[in-house]
Design goal:
Chain lengths: ~300, ~350
């Protein structure tokens, strides 16, 4: 047993009566600053993550193109974050509640930075919320992989595995990009996506090499999502003009995925990529039927109160 | 006198001395069965409340009207899942396990705080829950940081810090809404009108109808009576309501100069009893969601256990059948992710 009067970790003091008062006093102190308390709730430190990064557009980078590209990456992160949020209170175990919320927060943080950068780069000065809440479905530039409705936990893991493997490879390249803001977002995102990939890999192995049933679920999830993977490697003219051809990621990402899938005792799907619509897909604002309802839910409160501050 | 009683007498004397001296009882110390049972019930109920409590706010996660508010709310939900984890771990030091407690929750044999059986109807409810519900929880929980049972007391220190952070965030949201449009102000007042009385009921029935309080106070599990805590909460909250510019829906609310405290009206105890009995607006829905998540996840947990067993068997083989390898390398080592359940702790 521990002597309460000397247990510093428990924050107790010798006199129980004054101790309570002391704690109440700390609680009622209003300290709005984000510093110091951010550690109590991961992801809620709202100090500008790009503090000190030069936001001027570097010479030679086309503003509207950079803005469009930031929307592509920002929308990917925002929409996948929304799908992860839908898991909240539905995860198979409490550890997974914590982890999925954590992943969702990382992606939401990336989305906020990227949408903010889009507004700076395209010259409109629009805020993250103007992009998130006031654009129509066809103005969203995310790939279709992130918007398809949630399935079972294997689906969640499979989508995370495909997305995080590809996004990590991309962010690693972008850390050296000419735009210092995008490079900074990518540098931070690299650390986050490395964890997402590790998490998804660990669960792919557990489900693939767990029970017969879990192996079937994991295989079915990978097979179902596989046709959506190729869109992440299919260049949009904006990407080509900016010198960030995602086709270069295809081979290394497929190799990495193949290794994980093999280790899990599963097989790589041979399914062909999902067709485009008249040559257009997510990056051109042509989505699946799933994005509309997702956005309707995401935007409903904001749109009911135009001009309001939250 | 039985043999066990003969053994227990000096142990019980020691227990009483330790508790009376404001020292801590730790998991391996002897403790009376009733003390253990009371703690298991209370800590489990507390853990369940954290987990069920994610639902009412989670209702607004997908619709939060700004990305900043969405991030704050998501971080809060994550904290609550974390609190549930610490608390289940504290309960496990008393010889029960999380799976068993979860089973009792989803089958209705263990309770959670009745406040979570009320619906969240607008986004302002998110702010009011932070301000009033987390505020009331803090009043209840701060004294638990000095609870005689060490693991519970230590878990409460961290939980209280995070709760106070959530409370300030809730209050900050309400301040923003009150400075906003008329519709936003109406939303806040409506939410306050709905949550005020249920918040007062979070402290439990009045003292003369609270049979377990005396024993819990003697054991230094509980430090103040329900009515003392309720008064403390009202006294802390009224000035905050005035500062915010909302009206608390109690015509009897009046400053009592002699007592140096606020007088307030009587909550509707019959409503509390109804909600406790299972007739609250959301009782069935909350338990059903938790049950569905638990059952839908069964195959995932089974897979994790099977996977870990395979790796252990491989380890045994590699080690020539010697002591089992814990296979720490198979565990995800991500930030914030505790060791997975069922993989050899």
């Amino acid at each position: 047993m521990t002597d309460a009067t000397t247990d510093a970790t428990a924050g107790t003091t010798a006199d129980p009566r004054t101790d309570d008062d002391h704690v109440y006093l700390t609680l009622s102190e209003a300290s709005p600053g984000p510093e110091g308390e951010a550690r109590w709730a991961y992801g809620t430190g709202f100090a500008d993550p790009l503090l000190g990064v030069d936001t001027d557009l570097p010479p030679g980078v086309d503003g509207p193109d950079l803005g469009a590209y930031c929307l592509m990456l920002g929308d990917d992160a925002l929409v996948l974050s929304q799908r992860l949020i839908e898991w909240c209170t539905r995860a198979p175990e409490l550890e997974e509640e914590v982890a999925l919320a954590n992943l969702g927060l990382d992606l939401l943080g990336q989305a906020r930075q990227l949408l903010t950068r889009a507004g700076q780069a395209d010259g409109t000065g629009r805020s993250e919320d103007e992009y998130a809440y006031w654009r129509e479905e066809h103005d969203f530039r995310n790939v279709r992989l992130v918007e398809t409705p949630n399935g079972d936990f294997a689906h969640c893991v499979a989508r995370l595995l495909l997305f995080s493997t590809a996004r990590l490879a991309l962010y690693r390249r972008l850390t050296g990009y000419a735009d210092p803001v995008l490079a900074a977002v990518a540098a931070r995102g690299t650390k986050e996506l490395a964890y997402h990939r590790e998490y998804a890999t660990a669960w792919t192995l557990r489900l693939g090499d767990g029970t017969d049933y879990s192996a079937q679920r994991m295989q079915a999830a990978l097979d179902g999502l596989w046709p959506l993977l190729d869109e992440l490697f299919t260049a949009h003219p904006v990407e080509l003009r900016l010198g960030v051809d995602p086709a270069e990621l295809r081979e290394p990402v497929l190799r990495e995925l193949g290794e994980v899938i093999a280790e899990a005792g599963l097989t790589v799907s041979q399914a062909a990529p999902l067709a485009y619509v008249g040559g257009r897909a997510g990056r051109d604002g042509v989505h699946t039927e799933a994005l509309g309802p997702l956005l309707a839910e995401l935007q409903v409160v904001a749109r009911a109160h135009p001009g309001a501050t939250w | 006198m039985s043999a066990s009683q003969m053994v227990d007498q000096p142990l019980e004397g020691h227990f009483e001395t330790v508790v009376a001296a404001e020292q801590r009882i730790e998991p391996r110390d002897w403790m009376p069965d009733a003390y253990r049972a009371t703690l298991v019930r209370q800590i489990a109920q507390h853990a369940h409340s954290e987990i069920i409590g994610m639902q009412p706010e989670g209702n607004w996660l997908t619709r939060a009207p700004s990305l900043r508010r969405k991030a704050i709310l998501l971080a809060k939900a994550q904290d609550e899942a974390g609190h549930g984890l610490y608390l289940y771990a504290a309960a496990e030091t008393l010889g029960v396990d999380r799976a068993e407690l979860t089973e009792k929750l989803v089958s209705g044999r263990q309770k959670y705080s009745s406040i979570f059986n009320y619906p969240t109807l607008t986004f302002a409810d998110v702010g009011v829950i932070g301000w009033l519900v987390d505020g009331a929880a803090i009043c209840n929980q701060v004294p638990l940081c000095r609870c005689s049972y060490g693991p519970y007391a230590r878990a409460m220190v961290r939980i209280c810090k995070e709760e106070s952070f959530h409370q300030r965030q809730g209050y900050e949201l309400l301040m923003t809404l009150m400075r906003g449009t008329d519709a936003q102000r109406r939303m806040v007042q409506d939410a306050v009108d709905r949550w005020w009385w249920p918040s007062l009921m979070m402290f439990g029935p009045p003292d003369d109808d609270s049979p377990n309080t005396a024993q819990s106070m003697a054991w230094r599990i509980k430090r103040h009576t329900n009515d003392e805590l309720r008064q403390r909460f009202v006294d802390m909250t009224v000035p905050q309501a005035q500062h915010l510019g909302v009206t608390l829906p109690d015509p009897a609310l009046n400053w009592n100069e002699d007592r140096g405290s606020w007088d307030f009206g009587e909550p509707d105890w019959s409503e509390l009893k109804q909600v406790i009995k299972g007739q609250g607006p959301c009782n069935a829905q909350r338990v059903e969601r938790r049950r569905a998540a638990h059952e839908d996840g069964a195959w995932v947990r089974e897979a994790a256990v099977a996977y870990a067993a395979k790796r252990r068997a491989e380890g045994d083989l590699a080690a020539g059948g010697s002591a089992a390898d814990e296979h720490a390398a198979d565990e995800p080592k991500g930030k914030d992710e505790p060791k997975e359940k069922g993989t050899g702790r």
